[in-house]
C-alpha cells in the first residue's frame, strides 16, 4: 500500500500561495514548492479533512497528479529540465 494513498493534491495559481495556511498542509512553507516552467502554478498537498481555503479547488490523487506533471505539454518541468 502506498504511503501517499490518503494524500490529496491541489494545483493552485502562483498568486494564491500567500493565501495558504501551511500549518494545514504537508508543505511546510512556500519554500520548495514545485512551479510550472512559466511560474504560473504550483501545487500543495494535505491529508485528512480538506482545508477550507481549498474547498473550491479540484483535488487529485498522487497518480492523477503524476499524470499531469509527467506530461510535458502541461508545462511542468521534466527531469531533463532540472
Describe this structure in words.
- By secondary structure, the protein is mainly beta.
- It has one domain.
- Helix content is 10%, strand content 20%.
- It contains one helix and three strands, in the order βββα.
- The protein has a three-stranded antiparallel sheet with strand order 2-1-3.
- The model has no long low-confidence stretch (mean pLDDT 91).
Largest sheet: 3 strands, antiparallel
Structurally, the number of domains stands at 1
Binned strand content: 15-25%
Read across the widest sheet, the strand sequence of neighbours is: 2-1-3
Global shape: globular
Please tally the β strands and state the result: 3
Defining traits:
3-stranded antiparallel β-sheet, mainly beta, globular, 1 helix, single chain
Tell me the layout of helices and strands.
Layout: E1 7-13, E2 41-47, E3 59-60, H1 62-69
Antiparallel strand pairs: 1-2, 1-3
